[in-house]
């Protein structure tokens, strides 16, 4: 995976990312609505998993709570940080096995829920 890391705009349209980020700039972040707005709900499971890999900054196979706070930056450098409350709500929505982090299958399930 070295040196050949995908970027979000390889997978999603920049204008859709911008529209979704703008929608949640001053509104409470809703991951499901956001994923739908950027076009992820319509993507194959395989492509959703590619998005996950872009967001999994440390390559651990999980998006931990610390990474989750910066998840919007993974879509665009202009993305804002999530608040503690938004981060916890996102984690609660996706973390089905209760291990405190989001695995790739949990992420894909949340997007296609």
TrEMBL record:
Coiled coil: none annotated. Keywords: Calcium, Metal-binding, Muscle protein, Repeat. Pfam families: EF-hand_7. Ca(2+) 2 binds at residues 95, 97. The keyword Transport does not apply. One of its GO terms (cellular component) is cytoplasm. Residues 43-78, 82-113 form the EF-hand domain. It comes from the Eukaryota. Ca(2+) 1 binds at residues 56, 58, 60, 62, 67, 99, 101, 106. One of its GO terms (molecular function) is calcium ion binding. The keyword Metal-binding applies. Belongs to the parvalbumin family. In muscle, parvalbumin is thought to be involved in relaxation after contraction. It binds two calcium ions. This is Parvalbumin. It comes from Astatotilapia calliptera.
